[in-house]
Design a protein that fits this description.
four-stranded antiparallel β-sheet; about 55% helix; about 180 residues
């Protein structure tokens, strides 16, 4: 690859992570991974079964046992609030590291903050998801245990976001 082509595909970003970035990334991970989809459906299935038992109890006995009414409600609240709680915990860790400077180029992604520098080659990543605010890059293990979150606001302009998307499409598959 010529030096000019490398410069065209190189995108430098600067940003400070927010809790909302992490929340969007975790939601994208739930949609993109088999384990996340399975967990979501399992929670919904269990809640529906418990509601069915509660309805049957009400029809047969004329009363509803409290656990069969409360448990689906609690499960729904946990399902809805888990990404928010996880996002806050991850944000606290990232906030301590300070501002991130990221370089995306033909060799991979390099993220630098006050505490460390990490480099990921394209072979370490499998796919990516795009949300309205962030790009989320997933590791190549089946549970996508490692996430790289790149907020679009960190890009130096709309053309840089388009270049990022092009680089990701070239090296990764969309989730």
């Amino acid at each position: 690859m010529s030096m000019e082509q490398q410069t065209e595909t190189r995108v430098q970003m600067s940003y400070r992570a927010t809790a909302e970035d992490f929340r969007e990334a975790l939601r994208a991970r739930m949609r993109a991974t088999r384990a996340g989809r399975r967990m979501r459906w399992l929670m919904i299935l269990i809640a529906m079964m418990l509601l069915t038992v509660a309805a049957a109890s009400w029809l047969v006995n004329g009363t509803i046992d409290v656990p069969f009414f409360v448990t689906p409600t609690v499960m729904l609240l946990v399902l809805l609030s888990a990404p928010r709680m996880q996002a806050r915990q991850l944000y606290r860790l990232a906030d301590a590291a300070g501002e991130c400077r990221t370089v995306v180029d033909a060799s991979g992604i390099t993220v630098t903050n006050q505490q460390q520098t990490s480099m990921q080659s394209w072979q370490a990543l499998a796919n990516y998801a795009e949300t309205p605010r962030v790009f989320v890059l997933f590791s190549n293990d089946k549970n996508a245990s490692c996430l790289t979150i790149l907020p679009k606001r960190g890009a130096p302009g709309a053309d840089a976001v388009d270049r990022l998307r092009a680089v990701f499409d070239q090296h990764l598959t969309r989730a």
